[in-house]
Amino acid sequence: MNLYHCAIDIHNEAKALAFAGAVDQWMAYLKERGVVQGHRLLRRKLNLASDSCKDFLLEIEFENMTQLDQAFRVLGEDDEEVARLYRNVNTLIAHAEFGLFRPFPDPERAERMALI
Question: Is the pTM of this model over 0.70?
Answer without folding.
Answer: yes
